[in-house]
Structure of 3-hydroxy-3-methylglutaryl coenzyme A reductase:
Amino acid sequence: MHATFIRLWLASRALGSNFWLSTGIWSSSLISFLFTLPLCRYLNIPLDPIALTEALPFLVCTVGFEKPLRLAKVVLAHPQVLKPQEDGRLTPAGEVVLEALDRVGNVILRDYALEIAVLLVGVNSGVGGLKEFCSVAAVALGMDCLMICTFYTAVLTVMVEVRRVKQIRQMNRSRSNSVVQNGSGIRPALSKRPTANAPTPKTTSERLSAAVLGVKGSLLPETHGNKAHPADENPMYRLKLLLIASFLTLHILNFITPLTAGSTSTRHQKHSVRGGVDALPLAPLVDITSPAISSILASLAAAEKAGVELSESDAETELVVKVAAPVYLRVVPTTKRSGTKAEALENFMSSWSALVGDPVLSKSIVVLLALSVALNGYLLRGIAAGSGLAAMKAVRDKGVRFRSRVRSRVRAEKEEEPDATVTIAEPPVSHVPVLPVMAATVPPPHVERPKHMAPVANPPLNLDRIDMKLREAAIRAPLTPAETSSPGSDREGSPFQKESNRVAMRSLEECIEIFENGPKPVSVALSLLNDEEVVLLAQNGKIAPYALEKVLGDLQRAVQVRRALISRASKTKTLEYSDVPMTNYDYSRVIGACCENVIGYIPIPLGIAGPLKVDGELFPIPMATAEGTLVASTSRGCKALNAGGGVTTVLTHDAMTRGPAIDFPSVTRAGQARAWIESEEGYALVKEAFESTSRFAKLQNIKCAMAGRTLFVRFATRTGDAMGMNMISKATEKALDTMTKEFPEMVVLALSGNYCTDKKAAAINWIEGRGKSIVAEAVIPGKIVKSVLKTTVDALCNLNTKKNLVGSAMAGSIGGFNAHAANILTAIFLATGQDPAQNVESSQCMTLMEPTNGGEDLLMTVTMPCIEVGTVGGGTVLAPQQAVLEMLGVKGAHPTNPGQNAQQLARIIASAVMAGELSLISALAAGHLVRAHMAHNRSQVNTQANTPAISRPETPAILTPNTSKFWNDVSKGVMTPLTPGAHTPAVQASGYSIDAKTDT
């Protein structure tokens, strides 16, 4: 019976359920049994607990759980469980279960009817014990059939719904996990094509459970790709029906009697145990026919008869004699005496005789003994046959002899004594790849083969190793001419060349034939060609390099092939071997959205400054930059700002702009068009057409300007959480169509007439604003200015006025009244997926400083009227940039307030710019700038001693040495990733490492 339950669990696991399916089947059977007991009592069927206990395991084993498992298999293998219909809707779970019942319901009812019919034969047999058992079993089967059609079908309906929910969750998870996180940017060999349907690697526990318990869901068609036939007949059902019939036949013919009342009570009495005293009969009987008792009874009867005749009464009297059973007294000694070996053996043999006398066990032992003898004989014959075959094979294989390990080792040592040393064959030339930095100036190193090698002691010969070396030599032999004739033979060969050397390349005609006349679509035909053959087709103009993704249908392979094409067509031919990473990237988010002709991606170091408190909330400041000291300098500014309570920001304007250029036949018509646009009627018509293109596009205002016959119209609109260039361009086209109906003679010269103005420094952006206009303010205590920034409030205010205001005005700057706002803004742009080209207008900033609180503290403001950012679209679709936005809490569109995420990102950028401005101006005022850059911002390139280090212009920044604490106290310290050099002494302040001034 326990094996039946284990088999039920394994079968449920094979159907894809570890727990709930088997639990539902077991619950259905248990409920049917509980309903059976009161029904039997109502039908006056006697229930003997002992007989019922012995019979239930037999009923469970013979009937089993195949019928509910068969129904579950049909339901879970139904094609409409996970696959939607043609109209996209899923079939209701109830209809799926009803269709499964239509397929196998009649077969299940037939099996129940046959089993109940066989049990009814046992009911009518009249054999004691068997009749009651068959009656109970027939009622139980009927109730089980009822439960399958009611309770169990409801369980299957719930399981279908749960399986659909799991599939939807798995699909959502697979969409969110887009970029492979394991691995660096090192490209693999191009000959190894990425497999589209690579199997997911299993863990050790999963492989072990699959080997021991079987593969989960192995009986479902979608797991193995083969259609299951759940309605097919299973021969096990007929075998179990035959077992039930045999069981009834043996009982009726009285071959076995385990279910009769006498046998069950007798076995119970025989095997009952009482503490130290043998069990006595419960109701001892007295034999009144024994000579002793019969003579006494006869004398009593004669005496009674004589007494009646002598009595004077005529009334008849009756003599009643009660014969009491004999009482046996057994004296148990106080000390238990030790039994002899003979007594122990006698007790064992008595127990064994009683055990073997059981009608079921005796026959079972005989059957097991026969099976054991048969299996032993079969195994002995197999061993004998295997030994003979092995001996014959040994004779055929040139007479292999076996010796002991010690003798073989001694003999090998003796054979090695004359030749103690063996010379190793010359190894193949190892090619050293050229570093990308030195590829253009330094020739690649050449490794020469040594002419003579010292004798080296070699271990005993290994035949397997020799065979492997011979195979390697045979593979390398035909490749030598090709390698020596190739232009890059002095370096490591390309993956394509390795692939073509291993596999014979097809000719150009054969490749063209496969490409043009092979299986369709073209991607299937190209999958028959290796990468080198695809390169050959592209070099001969059969495949356009820009269309490789569309033709190949494999994004990673398209990048590999294009990389080889561009490398071989270039002058240096180094791209194919370069360190530009290519693998472990989700190109599906790039193609058609971010870049074309992709050959890889460029990693940029990503640092974190801060945290910085912005409007009462702490934010880390992500910065993607290759400029040293920039992140550290910004972190120092964040610390100073946090000490004064953080930064307060105000959003003054939010509108993206687009300014088309429109030509008119005359200035009169141009002036009329301008007046119409600025009128209430014209503005209403244009606004309606403009806002009809998107629910996020909300027109704010229209500004017009004329230059001769050309009219420039500057549309300003809110764009939600998107940066909005595409949205406003589409809306502007719709508004111009409406204008065309009023002025059909107008000609739209360009959708963008540089009146926007986009990606160019312009005074209109500085004055009117574009994107998000942010004003930020902070108060820095005077003691923080002295202790952290190492300067004074007066010095900062004076330097800011002379440098950022007067100096920029002398240079005729437009919006450049700052120290280095573009530095911080561009680093955040790169980290968050913004358009780097828009840093031109977004970096327009005015930094103001003035003393406050009686000249003790510093009041600092930053005004940035055109920060053009978004959290939807563009580079924000890339997974790394999305992760940075998610860290800031501004990923994607805001669920309730469109535009709030993009506005919050603009506030963070303006606050970070303030931190960078404060730190740099303080470094200039304190004289730390040159010393910090000399210590930490010089490129350390491995060059020759006489070669000067590579230098490039750098934006000034302040040195912030290393600290071991990370964000533990924003009022005392921040993360500072730099490490001071040996020549730069430092002192440790409270929670913050600051530089010591070397000049006195």
